[in-house]
Amino acid sequence: xxxxxxxxxxxxxxxxxxxxxxxxxxxxxxxxxxxxxxxxxxxxxxxxxxxxxxxxxxxxxxxxxxxxxxxxxxxxxxxxxxxxxxxxxxxxxxxxxxxxxxxxxxxxxxxxxxxxxxxxxxxxxxxxxxxxxxxxxxxxxxxxxxxxxxxxxxx
Length: 155
Known about the structure:
Layout: E1 10-11, H1 13-18, E2 19-29, H2 33-40, E3 44-45, E4 50-54, E5 57-61, E6 64-65, E7 82-85, H3 88-99, E8 103-113, E9 116-126, H4 129-154
Antiparallel strand pairs: 1-8, 2-7, 2-9, 3-6, 4-5, 5-7, 8-9
């Protein structure tokens, strides 16, 4: 009995480092056949991607989906604009959030829900350097505590 292959979960690791995430939404994404095959192969990057609201629709820009190796003349462009699927009230919330100064919409992660690809997007505000240093200090302190507890439990 063989199990189904584990589908990749693509994270945007730099998003939480560079931004404060204020609110998150789960949206669908319109893809072509060769794009979904590349994503299933793990060839998807969100590091430089962002979301814009235009004419009451939302679009994912600058996301990189590598061309499908077995694709032919119908292969997709790696950095094409992709439409995101969300309900009208969610789109209105996103539009209101981006109208505020300093807020942007960043994709946080992409994952499969059944056979459908979903994208978690977040309304974010940029961090300042001191915020990044404080986060780094908290992370180091947590690591030290975990190490000390692990050492103590070993004895």
